[in-house]
Amino acid sequence: MANVQGSARSWSNTQRVALVEELVGKAGIGVQDRIVAAEVLVTSPGRNYVTLKITTAEGLTGWGDATLNGRELAVAAYLRDHVCPLLIGRDPARIEDTWQYLYRGVYWRRGPVTMTSVGAVDLALWDIKGKSAGQPVYQLLGGAVRDRILSYTHATGWDVPALLDSIDAARERGFQAIRAQSGVPGLDTVYGVSRASAAYEPAGRGTAPTEEVWDTDAYLRHAPVALAAAREHVGPEVALLHDAHHRLNPNQAARLGKALEPLDLFWLEDVTPAENQEVLRHVRRHTTVPLAIGEVFTTIWEFQQLITEQLIDFVRAAVTHAGGISHLRRIAALAEVWQIRLGPHGPSDVSPVALAASVHVGLATPNFAIQEYMGYPDAAHEVFHHAWSYADGHLHPGDEPGLGVHVDEAVAVRFPYEPAYLPVARRRDGSMTDW
Ligand code: EZ4
Ligand code: CO
Fold this sequence. Notes:
- This protein is α/β, with parallel strands linked by helices.
- It has 14 helices and 19 strands.
- It has helices spanning 13-26, 72-87, 95-104, 112-133, 137-140, 160-172, 216-234, 250-260, 279-286, 300-308, 324-337, 352-364, 378-383, 409-412; strands at residues 35-43, 49-56, 61-65, 149-157, 177-182, 204-205, 211-213, 239-243, 267-269, 291-293, 314-315, 341-342, 371-372, 384-386, 389-391, 394-396, 405-407, 420-421, 424-426.
- Strands 4, 5, 8, 9, 10, 11, 12, 13, 15 and 16 form a ten-stranded mixed β-sheet that branches. A three-stranded antiparallel β-sheet has the order 1-2-3. Strands 6-18 form a two-stranded antiparallel sheet.
- The relative contact order is 0.15.
């Protein structure tokens, strides 16, 4: 640089860049970091998880969750074959630009496989940004707006007495918000509800989904009875939730909503598939039961009508499947305008990495309401070491820099992928259900 002479005006661009680099070097400011590796880890500690690991030249590691229940390997391949190679050499600090690049640059927008992949990259880059700043992610989102995150867990029982026992067990663990699901008389199987145990697990291991017989009329006769027993059992103050798992048509949904109104539910979830969102107008006209929808939706555009027509009360988007922290915050901001709140999806198929991200968002987002928290198989805690914690019905992300999750790769490789699928349902006549 000693040969740089004369006024700045006469310098070439190369000379300017060289001078800036020299000054930056002297000031001890590191040149911008680069992504040097992006790897996909598939592991199955009790259930399948897909995890993205991004490493930078400065030696920072970011973790993202890319788990899509029942289609795990499609996301793993999408990341490995089409996304990881594009990340090498990029500046990890450019989270928003990378999001736009992966969403708009791909031409094929939206869809769960793309959006889960984009979400995994977004989570990993926020993790790196937090580690580079020495701050937990919630601080970078503007800091805490609440002290802790209200969470709800699942209670399931094949019959009403078993459901009430399961509710008692959840309350003993401190939960003040509980989702209640039960078996249905006359049906041999009900989505997620086991005859044998109180564990809620819709996905089954095996090379094909199990086929279940479903009868919506039988469900509609029984659900209000089981939920009334639950309300009677817990009294007025415990928040009760229920998930209809997309199995109703609009009029059935309206009828169920009306029947459940006296029970003062916190929410009734996924009453219709909501692929056609106009049908929710009919449900809204007939019931004031709070509606939660959207665990299978992946973008702000899929929520646009639901939010702007005030067809729902709670957005169920998951931080992974809806494009990461960056995109979930946008959905939350849109929802805030219509006084709609976030209640993110958090089953055990959303990994502890994504749960961490969801809880960071929750701590820093004003219109966050509640976080689903099912817990994890013991083996998952051996693979995913996390700073987030649960106590007294609430979650907190902890104060480690970044997302606060470390993945033990040596333990992860001990649990190879095993095929597992969510069940499919048929009516009594053998035809596939139409929801
Ligand atoms: O069916 O996580 O609200 N929670 C749910 C979950 C979902 C599964 C799908 O992967 O509906 O149990
Ligand atoms: Co659900």
